[in-house]
Amino acid sequence: MIPAPFQYHTPKTVEEALRLLERHGDEAKLLAGGHSLLPLMKLRLAAPRYVIDIGRLKTLGGIREVRGKIAIGALTTHAEIEASDLVRRHCPLLAETAGEIGDAQVRNRGTVGGSLAHADPAADYPAAILALDAEIVAASKSGHRTIPAAEFFVDMLTTKLRPGEILTEVRVAPMSAKTGTAYMKLPQPASGFALVGVAVRLAISRAGKVDDVRVGITGVGLKAYRATAVENALRGNPAEDKMFAEAASFAAQGIEPLSDLHASAAYRKEMAAVFTRRALHRALGRARGKAD
Ligand code: FAD
User: Fold this and answer.
1) 239/210 Cα distance (integer angstroms)
2) Residue 34 CB less than 6 A away from ligand 1
3) Number of domains present in the structure of the chain
4) Which of 18, 40, 118 should be mutated for ligand 1, with most atoms under 8 A from CB?
5) What are the residues whose beta carbons fall under 8 Å from the beta carbon of 277, sequence distance 6 or more?
6) Residue 291 confidence class, pLDDT cut points 50, 70, 90
7) Is the CB of 30 under 6 A from ligand 1?
């Protein structure tokens, strides 16, 4: 289908984009990679009167180290994150997750900022962002603010971003020693979106116990979530498969799993446990420096 008519703006700076957003309010939409917005516009599920294309704003791109954290600009594509030496070295979970998104075309156009702002319940990054305790930076006409990942996802397609804000950057702390990470997903075969996607960051002690663990899960509920019941069951216990299987059974605790033509609620719940156990196992191997 053809989108409804709209006025197209190409601001030259973030400040100009913020002014346009303020002027046009609810009738405006930001455009980054277009891989979520344009399909919605073509289906007329979205019909913004003003499209503000931020895709050429160089200041929103790039990956760099800032005060001990890895800062990833909102316009960084999935392919750039997957290929970045800095991300692979210090934050391999994010590179691994980016490599699991859609196909090469989607990874070459889609951006991390667009994906997080869109907050699709089956998107991959949210699981990793939660497991990494990342920070999301938003700009508005009154300045910048930082939103912790744990607070960012509010509901299906809804985030903590306020009207008039632009997501500018994601910040992630580098991985510490004796830590392993893994992202494992059951993809919807046509699109690649996660029926279930599990991101794990696991730190083990010298004695082989779970020092710390974060588990982010996407695809199962209306929004991505931290599986705190799994984390609590693991912390301080031996890092071994029997323990992982027991803890993973809590993967969908307190969540009402989605049910659609791709997977029933019961199947998603079961797969959440299966993929959590697998991701824990893989993260443990990596924490011990073993090949997958
Ligand atoms: P856009 O489509 O340009 O924008 C999406 C939304 O975010 C819009 O509402 C826009 O206004 C808003 N927005 C964009 N940038 C900002 C910003 N900086 N600040 C505030 N708001 C902003 N995703 C997955 O996670 N896993 C998959 O397996 C997967 N498979 C896909 C397969 C196909 C065929 C397609 C078309 C998409 C798929 N996607 C998948 C989605 C893809 O990753 C998109 O790139 C991503 O969801 C949106 O990023 P974008 O840059 O294209 O955003």
Assistant:
1) 5
2) yes
3) 3
4) 118
5) 241, 244, 245, 248
6) confident
7) yes
* Single pTM value for the model: 0.96
Task: Please give the distance, rounded to the nearest whole angstrom, from the Cα atom of residue 110 to the centre of ligand 1.
Answer: 6
**Residue 192, by phi and psi: left (phi above 0), alpha (psi -120 to 50) or beta?**
left
Query: Last residue of some domain: 118, 150, 172?
Result: 172
Residue 58 phi, psi dihedral angles, 5° rounding = -60, -30
Nearest protein CA to atom 36 of ligand 1, as residue: 35
Which residues constitute the domain of residue 214? 179-287
- For the stretch 206-251, pLDDT in tens is 999 999 999 999 999 999 999 999 999 999 999 999 999 999 999 9
- Ligand 1 probe mutation, 10, 35, 56, 184, most atoms within 8 A of CB: 35
pLDDT at 193: 96
CATH number for the domain including 159? 3.30.465.10
142 lies in the same domain as 210: no
Domain-embedded: residue 153: yes
Q: pLDDT per residue over 91-101, tens digit each? A: 999 999 999 99
> Is any atom of ligand 1 closer than 6 Å to the C-beta of 69?
no
The CATH number of the domain holding residue 47 is 3.30.43.10
CB 136 within 8 A of CB 165: no
Residue percentage of the chain with pLDDT more than 70: 100
Q: Is the dihedral of CA 147, 150, 116, 20 positive or negative?
A: negative
